[in-house]
Amino acid sequence: MSNTATALKAIPEVSVSHTASPMKIVVVGHVDHGKSTLVGRILNETGALPEGKVEYLREVCDKRGMPFEWAFVMDALQAERDQGITIDTAQIRFKTEARPYVIIDAPGHKEFLKNMVSGAASAEAAVLVIDAHEGVQEQSRRHGYLLHLLGLRQIAVAVNKMDLVNFSESRFEEVKAEIVAYLNSIGVEPTYVVPVAARSGANIATKSVETPWYQGPSVLGALDMFEPAKPATDLALRFPVQDVYKFDERRIIAGRIESGRLKVGDTLVFAPSGKMAKVATIETWGNVAAAVSAGAGQSVGITLDEQIFVERGNVASLEHHVPHQSHDLKARVFWLGRGPLKVGSRYKLKLATAEHVVDVVAIERVIDVEDLANHQGTEVARNAVAEVVFRGKSPIAHDSFIDNPRLGRFVLVEGYDIVGGGVIAEASSEDARNRSTHVTEVPHKVDAETRSIANGHRGGVVWLTGLSGAGKSTIAMEVERQLFLKGWQVTVLDGDNVRTGLCGDLGFSDADRAENIRRVGEVAHLFADAGMVVVTSFISPFRADREKVRAINPDAFHEVHVATGLNECERRDPKGLYKKARSGEISYFTGVSSAYEAPALPELTLATEGKSVDESVADLLRYIDKAFSLSAREQANGWGL
Amino acid sequence: MNDLDALESQSIYILREAFNRLDKIAMLWSIGKDSNVMLWLARKAFFGHVPFPVLHVDTHNKIPEMIEFRDRVAKEWNLPLIVGENTEALAAGMGPHKGRVECCTALKTEGLKALLAQHGFTGVIAGIRRDEEGTRAKERVFSPRNQSAEWDFKDQPPEFWDQFKTDFAPGTHLRIHPLLAWSELDVWRYIERENIPMVDLYFAKNGRRYRSLGCAPCTGSVASTASTVAEIIEELETTKISERSGRAQDKESEDAFERLRAGGYM
């Protein structure tokens, strides 16, 4: 080391201290399997209970005329004691010789799953409690699955109530085999499976003489063997902006470094703008020396060397390790809402400090946590887990959960409530190389006005949507013919036709349907820009997809709902598709096995039932004439008359 | 990061979230050790500024030293202090002789509610900790209350990954708890590290000191010889006496504290 090394010296993050942060352990499992009792016991065995607490609880139990209940240590609420269940998660500390802990008691009842998730999400490791007598139950599996989904990789299993099965080794082995098989199938290797009798304290702090056949550690021994979480300092820098303050003439960008490190002089790139600036200072207050570097977990404030526009939700990173950015997110979601999550529904997605409006474009599978079977569905019920594709109105900066959990997880808000959470299964970028950086729009030399004057009408998109068999193509083709005969520039984009070429690579899953509509929408607008009236004929079942097409150029988009009821469409069945769908030959079929979302506010509704095709065609032609024709005055002005 | 750094950073994050997400917030200042630490954390979070009012609900029963400390520190730190009280109840002679739970409800809970309503605060920051007491252990960091400030502990919003509930229907408001994860020992270790001023009552005189400060009639001192912060830390490392053991209002019935809190008490 030369003398110059003293110029910039990072202040060590770890000041001299012998205190480790407590390890957070969540205790989960099926209702009545003895979680709270286990926790009460652990607290007692480790001397964590204040003086007089046990005596006090003994009095409470006596008053109620019941035997002493260890669970009352955690179940502080009257309602919990009355019903003998844990309603909400609680956190209490204890210490072993190895280290301090925070124990998080989580409720087992299915209706309190949101509380269990709240407890489990902040834990580093878990104890899954299973009743030796009852064996593995629904919530044992659900909790196991959710722990894994939440990113917990260290799980010990306590097979409780061994006293009720006479400390039988064979019963223990049975239960152990069952839970290990399940955990293995979701990719979890439990660290230890411990036979326990929480009520009497067997194998909680010390090894019990009642299980001479058991060679492993006690519950506390198993906890002490968990590895502390690795600091996120090793990951790429992610600094989500929490707020921007203007104090004392400084513009301070405040936030918590979620991962990685930053130092004075680093060039930061802010997503989504891509704007860059250098870190000028790291601001501090109080009797601390000015810092030149800060790392994961620290709540800091920085100033930049240039006054670029930065706001809450932006994510700063270093140039060569930027997060992914895309409109679409493929995620694994646990749903806690009272009503189901549905394709087409809109939610607020909160990821780090950013908030995005997203639509559910597809539910790829609903996972049955009982048997891990996959189901198709257009809805996710409360407490279920599913793989879902969301689409944002603007690009979302993110990482995959595996790469960087801090930027790979989110919650969903509906109305005023947090209704679910999720982890990002795959990070995807709408590849920057294809997308933006080297693309520059080249202006046409013929503008839209000139084209419309030459044609006598404007260009635009007439988007027909409706169920299969509603009459879209029939109407579209006749309208095209009649407009053509009037001398208009017109064409029809029809579902089956584009699927033979442009969209030949796509199937009929919700995601593929969304992509199909996206492409058609872009093509339709290209034609419209060229001055043509483009009539499209696509079922286009999802409102969100149609709204995206509208958003390309809202002035030129006209949504027409060909509103024919399902019964009537099925009666007509012009291509025999309903018959095939009903027999199961076609697996995704709108109206039968896939959703259709009618437009909320279409520019025109064509109710075809009880009308001839000619009448519907005439209605649409009247609309097009009104919306697209130039007035005599416009024409005259256009020709300079 | 050591454990105090981690707690500090998390509390600053919470304070900044509250400041950013809510329209009109205030911080409760009971002048006890926890809220003094919380105030210190706010000054760290906002680089020496406290960008919201600091509220003190005066029951007229506080220990005089506390009020002196309040007025001195408010001046030194240039705090936007608002003092409120339940004038009506005080005029009607409310006091612990009418029942401790009743007195707390009238002078603290109702006094606070009136203050919140008067200023239209949508959120109040309070320095409660999970380790103080069982119902507080169940609290959320951002805890919604209904129009009457009641806490529905049976149906709390999910809260994970620091994604707090910050959207709520008009009329409801939030309690924000930046110190929820701290323990009593953490608080004192942080006071020592940061050299935060404290009311003298915490330090032993004649073999007794206060561990938790409240109203004079309902707060007892405990036997202790700890007369410096370092000695308090040493004492807490070994004690098995619960912190609120000096608080009489908790002990009126098995669920006295739960009822107080459900009704809007801190």
UniProtKB/TrEMBL annotation, chain A:
Function text: Proposed to provide activated sulfate for transfer to Nod factor. ATP sulfurylase may be the GTPase, regulating ATP sulfurylase activity. Catalyzes the synthesis of activated sulfate.
Gene3D superfamilies membership: P-loop containing nucleotide triphosphate hydrolases, Translation factors
Tell me the protein's name.
Answer: Adenylyl-sulfate kinase
Q: What class of enzyme is it?
A: transferase
Q: Which reaction does it catalyse?
A: sulfate + ATP + H(+) = adenosine 5'-phosphosulfate + diphosphate; adenosine 5'-phosphosulfate + ATP = 3'-phosphoadenylyl sulfate + ADP + H(+)
Q: Does the keyword Lyase apply?
A: no
Per the database record, which ranges form the Tr-type G domain? 20-232
Task: Tell me which UniProt keywords the record has, alphabetically.
Answer: ATP-binding, GTP-binding, Kinase, Multifunctional enzyme, Nucleotide-binding, Nucleotidyltransferase, Phosphoprotein, Transferase
State the active site.
S540
Cite the annotated pathway.
Sulfur metabolism; hydrogen sulfide biosynthesis; sulfite from sulfate: step 2/3
Single biological process term from Gene Ontology? sulfate assimilation
**Which PANTHER family does the entry link to?**
TRANSLATION FACTOR (PTHR23115)
Tell me if ATP-binding is a UniProt keyword of this record: yes
Q: What's the source species for this entry?
A: Paramagnetospirillum magneticum (strain ATCC 700264 / AMB-1)
Which Enzyme Commission number(s) are listed? Answer: 2.7.1.25
Subunit details:
Sulfate-activating enzymes, NodP and NodQ, may be physically associated.
* Similarity-based family: In the C-terminal section; belongs to the APS kinase family.
The record's listing under CDD domains reads: APSK, CysN_NoDQ_III
- A GO molecular-function term, please? GTPase activity
Q: Where does ATP bind?
A: G466, L467, S468, G469, A470, G471, K472, S473
